[in-house]
Amino acid sequence: MTTEVRVPTLGESVTEATVATWFKKPGDAVAVDEMLCELETDKVTVEVPATAAGVMGEIVAKEGDTVGVDALLATITEGEGAAPAPKAEAADPAPASGGGGESVDVMVPTLGESVTEATVSTWFKKVGDSVAQDEMLCELETDKVSVEVPAPAAGTLGEILAKEGDTVQADGKLAVISGGSGAAAAPAADAPAAAPSASGGGKDVEDAPSAKKAMAETGLSSDQVEGSGRDGRVMKEDVAKAAAAASAAPASAPAAAPTAPAPRAPVSADDASREERVKMTRLRQTIARRLKDSQNTAAMLTTYNEVDMTAVMALRNEYKEEFLKKHGVKLGFMSFFTKACCHALKEVPEVNAEIDGTDIVYKNFVHMGIAAGTPTGLVVPVIRDADQMGFAAIEKAIAEKGARARDGKLSMAEMQGGTFTISNGGVYGSLMSSPILNPPQSGILGMHKIQQRPMVVNGEIVARPMMYLALSYDHRIVDGKGAVTFLVRVKDALEDPRRLLMDL
């Protein structure tokens, strides 16, 4: 049987890579998850593991070739003849553990597009505990979501390889489940002895060939570079960081000396004893980094308007019971805003576009991001092709994704690919704010609290339910005229919802 080795997903907006190094040649024996080659994109270095054990067959893409996503790299011939050596090495720990049943590896599940590592946040089981198939073993935290890891088989948790707080790579091994009720004791006893030999102290791991070349060019040794790859493997980008730090250190040292001891304002001993220091979660770190990157990259500007919600509220009150009875979901304001934004984006397409290098990419569809607050931070689930959906479908999608977001069940795919975002700060009582762009998007609409305010209507002062709207946009591709036009179209559609039916 022949298994194809293909280019993995390289990350959002990355469509091709260069084959940097092959670690195997045709005829070599390979084990499952053994690294076959290394690809380099314009952003990261990607390792390609073997998806099956066997013999390395034909190498289709040579070193230096440019390949696209899912392109064929090589083939692996599965069979009895070539795999014994890798399998024997992989199986060595099993006899030492006292045997008594098959061992099943607990691996890091697929983390999502462009996500290569996670942090082990919580283990629900400890070594020696019995586990049932699909029972939750641990929870991983990535830059965007929490991922629960179920038991792939029933048995006893024999060894935990990745402790709480450890960073693990995609497809890395987390633990070992021993089959049978009596198999736990020996593995648990052997675990401390086995761990050092498995890890090899972190220095027995082969550095990436591209990293070796870079170290030779910069005159650095491997002990001067902190590896970010699997098992501490030094990657090319690690060498670049170390070289940059080394070159900057002499120049910056004199100037930095006075400020280095005081990274934050002095705190009295009494105040310090009442403080609590908590490490930021990976999600919160990513939110902080992305928001600051957005401010640093985009020429962000915000324009404001206000909308009289009288017509929408009257229409909603008139049909909400009938709508709930027919569609099984409540009629809220978000579907009106989503439809109004989709309508306005057709007229002002640059708000639904993004910058890619020196190109503007116009999206002939609307994947609407709906920002949602959760106990762990802000997430933005995406409703795909919202411009093709009716009110009921939009409300159902918002309700379902909102519930999944609060429960931490959103997948990576559900939070990627958005072209425009709506953020509703009004649910928390916000009267006015300037939302920050969700890159690479070029527009985000901020909704706010509906408040009765005196308005002049037909020469008379009357109380009307008013809401401030804020559109933050990337001024690099959206001009002021386009931004104002977008907000006015949203305002018109909400103040007279019949315009949506007439496509006006």
Automatic annotation (TrEMBL):
<dbReference type="InterPro" id="IPR023213">
    <property type="entry name" value="CAT-like_dom_sf"/>
</dbReference>
<dbReference type="Pfam" id="PF00198">
    <property type="entry name" value="2-oxoacid_dh"/>
</dbReference>
<feature type="domain" description="Lipoyl-binding">
    <location>
        <begin position="2"/>
        <end position="77"/>
    </location>
</feature>
<feature type="region of interest" description="Disordered">
    <location>
        <begin position="192"/>
        <end position="231"/>
    </location>
</feature>
<keyword id="KW-0012">Acyltransferase</keyword>
<keyword id="KW-0808">Transferase</keyword>
<dbReference type="GO" id="GO:0006099">
    <property type="term" value="P:tricarboxylic acid cycle"/>
</dbReference>
<comment type="function">
    <text>E2 component of the 2-oxoglutarate dehydrogenase (OGDH) complex which catalyzes the second step in the conversion of 2-oxoglutarate to succinyl-CoA and CO(2).</text>
</comment>
<dbReference type="Pfam" id="PF02817">
    <property type="entry name" value="E3_binding"/>
</dbReference>
<comment type="similarity">
    <text>Belongs to the 2-oxoacid dehydrogenase family.</text>
</comment>
<dbReference type="GO" id="GO:0004149">
    <property type="term" value="F:dihydrolipoyllysine-residue succinyltransferase activity"/>
</dbReference>
<dbReference type="InterPro" id="IPR001078">
    <property type="entry name" value="2-oxoacid_DH_actylTfrase"/>
</dbReference>
<dbReference type="GO" id="GO:0033512">
    <property type="term" value="P:L-lysine catabolic process to acetyl-CoA via saccharopine"/>
</dbReference>
<keyword id="KW-0816">Tricarboxylic acid cycle</keyword>
<dbReference type="GO" id="GO:0005829">
    <property type="term" value="C:cytosol"/>
</dbReference>
<feature type="compositionally biased region" description="Low complexity">
    <location>
        <begin position="81"/>
        <end position="96"/>
    </location>
</feature>
<dbReference type="GO" id="GO:0045252">
    <property type="term" value="C:oxoglutarate dehydrogenase complex"/>
</dbReference>
<feature type="domain" description="Lipoyl-binding">
    <location>
        <begin position="103"/>
        <end position="178"/>
    </location>
</feature>
<dbReference type="InterPro" id="IPR036625">
    <property type="entry name" value="E3-bd_dom_sf"/>
</dbReference>
<feature type="region of interest" description="Disordered">
    <location>
        <begin position="248"/>
        <end position="277"/>
    </location>
</feature>
<dbReference type="InterPro" id="IPR050537">
    <property type="entry name" value="2-oxoacid_dehydrogenase"/>
</dbReference>
<feature type="domain" description="Peripheral subunit-binding (PSBD)">
    <location>
        <begin position="206"/>
        <end position="243"/>
    </location>
</feature>
<keyword id="KW-0450">Lipoyl</keyword>
<feature type="compositionally biased region" description="Low complexity">
    <location>
        <begin position="248"/>
        <end position="259"/>
    </location>
</feature>
<feature type="region of interest" description="Disordered">
    <location>
        <begin position="81"/>
        <end position="106"/>
    </location>
</feature>
<protein>
    <recommendedName>
        <fullName>Dihydrolipoyllysine-residue succinyltransferase component of 2-oxoglutarate dehydrogenase complex</fullName>
        <ecNumber>2.3.1.61</ecNumber>
    </recommendedName>
</protein>
<dbReference type="InterPro" id="IPR006255">
    <property type="entry name" value="SucB"/>
</dbReference>
<dbReference type="Pfam" id="PF00364">
    <property type="entry name" value="Biotin_lipoyl"/>
</dbReference>
<dbReference type="InterPro" id="IPR000089">
    <property type="entry name" value="Biotin_lipoyl"/>
</dbReference>
<dbReference type="InterPro" id="IPR011053">
    <property type="entry name" value="Single_hybrid_motif"/>
</dbReference>
<comment type="pathway">
    <text>Amino-acid degradation; L-lysine degradation via saccharopine pathway; glutaryl-CoA from L-lysine: step 6/6.</text>
</comment>
<dbReference type="InterPro" id="IPR004167">
    <property type="entry name" value="PSBD"/>
</dbReference>
<comment type="subunit">
    <text>Forms a 24-polypeptide structural core with octahedral symmetry. Part of the 2-oxoglutarate dehydrogenase (OGDH) complex composed of E1 (2-oxoglutarate dehydrogenase), E2 (dihydrolipoamide succinyltransferase) and E3 (dihydrolipoamide dehydrogenase); the complex contains multiple copies of the three enzymatic components (E1, E2 and E3).</text>
</comment>
